Amino acid sequence: MTMTDQRRKEEGALAPLFEAERRDAPMPSGDWMARMEALALAEQPAPRPEDVRSAPPRRGVASWREALRVFGGWPALAGLAAACAAGVWIGVASPQTMTTWLSTDSSTSLSAIDPASGFDYAMLGL
Amino acid sequence: MPYDAMNGDSDETLLAAYAAGDQAAARALVQRLGPRAFGHAVRMLGDRAEAEDVAQEALLRLWRAAPGWRDGEAKVSTWLYRVVANLCIDRMRRRRGGTVDLDDIAEPADPAPGAEATLQGRAREGALQEALGALPERQRQAVVLRHLEGLSNPEIAGIMDLGVRAVESLTARGRKALEALLAGRRAELGYDDD
User: Fold this and answer.
1) Residue B146 and residue A28: Cβ atoms within 8 Å?
2) What are the structural domain ranges in chain B?
3) Architecture of domain B1-97
4) Contact criterion met (CB < 8 Å) for A11 and B17
5) Which family is annotated (chain B) (predicted)?
6) DSSP helix/strand/coil, A121
7) Which ipTM value was assigned to this complex?
8) Under an 8 A CB cutoff, do A32 and B38 touch?
9) Does any CB of chain B come closer than 8 Å to the CB of residue A38?
10) Chain A to chain B, count of Cβ pairs less than 8 Å apart?
């Protein structure tokens, strides 16, 4: 039994009255429809380029993504984080090899970096 | 896109396009929902001027709700019927304290010879509207949605925030009350012999 048949059965003796009322549904005037159209357009939000069905990004997330892009993306951020971690480790742990390498003993450091020997200077008459 | 090309789109799709600023969607929605809101308000209130105000208010609320409308949250038609009915019930409560006595309503004029069928049709509509006006608000809403708007019981249950059985009970009581109200006018309205 279709929904219409079921409804007619429910309506019984009242069916002709309901039928007449359904046939002549009240229609609004043209003026009213024109006013409703003007109202709908007046209330309408301004057009947006993106699809309305996709949720707009939240402001905080958008600015974080922009900052990440300026720094060079995730690889650059990973390098920066690694450099920071190494700096902290050197400052806190102060490893022996690092202390030796950065020694302030001037003679050691000079001999280590001067390419000329004493023989070279003697030959040059210095 | 011209709005007649949007006939295949659902109300929800059109409302999303409306919220995105599509003017054709705005026109299509007015053409589709305007008569529906107005018709329901007329049948609830029995007064065209008041129905225009109510339908306008309901549409205005819809336009303002459009930007926050979420897909799958509610059907636009369900939402609209509910808002129109609630606005109508508010007006009916303000307008009167109780129900209208059918004896207070003027009898329709005697039909002129030769135009009997037309006048009988008008008398049927008038009599039904008068009898609907005498029903309690919720019964009237259920009967109008079921027998004049042609909605299914589950749809009506969604609009009225009731169970399907409660809707069936409301419409059954509404029909019984209408039959009682119109019993004395069966011959005049010509529905005994249909």
Assistant:
1) no
2) 1-97, 101-194
3) Orthogonal Bundle (1.10)
4) no
5) Belongs to the sigma-70 factor family. ECF subfamily.
6) helix
7) 0.77
8) yes
9) no
10) 126
